[in-house]
């Protein structure tokens, strides 16, 4: 298949698709730091999205789409405009004339203004000892398969749910737990987990 991996500079997923024998390319306005620069299209993905792709998997920027931005946008017109632009970009990807599409984002505004995601996953579902809620919006693709326990027909993919790194009580008296983000920068938080990339490439191939 001819596959476009949008908004990816790491080439983690692109490399997994390539290992499966597909003609996969990453695309981003930033240069790749992956090992295969010839697999990277540097530019606006919307300029390349109509080039007869069989599949699009994209990671549109979530900074203005995540749920944590909601209260920040209420009294900030600049942030609100950025959120509208981000949502428009998301929908342009989702409405592309490509048979198979997956868009990945954290829980946020798209579940309200577009539709609920088709699937919610965590890295520990696929053997990573990390907790990070990730939503997938799918078109023409099945939900990723993961198994809590081994049975006669499938192997166990889950590892134990990780313990929280720390917890605190918010202003409303609700206990909040931090699992993943507190000691990682934005680039580290956005990096696709290798096990999830492998599951996407293997199951959707």
Structure report:
It contains six helices and nine strands, in the order βαβββααβαββββαα. With 205 residues, the chain is α/β, with parallel strands linked by helices. The strands form two sheets. Strands 3-2-1-4-5-7-6 form a seven-stranded mixed beta sheet, with helices on both faces. Helix 1 runs parallel beside helix 6. The longest helix has 18 residues. The protein is globular, with a radius of gyration of 18 Å. The model has no long low-confidence stretch (mean pLDDT 88).
Helical proportion, percent range: 10-25%
Give the number of domains. Answer: 1
Can you list the strand order of the major beta sheet?
3-2-1-4-5-7-6
Mean pLDDT: 88
Query: What structural category characterises the helix and strand content?
Result: alpha/beta
Which descriptor suits the 3D outline? globular
The count of β-strands is 9
In short:
24% of the residues lie in helices and 20% in strands. The chain has helices at 12-19, 70-73, 77-94, 110-113, 186-190, 194-203, and strands at residues 2-6, 23-28, 40-42, 55-58, 100-105, 119-121, 134-139, 166-169, 175-178. A seven-stranded mixed β-sheet has the order 3-2-1-4-5-7-6, sandwiched between helices. A two-stranded antiparallel sheet has the order 8-9.
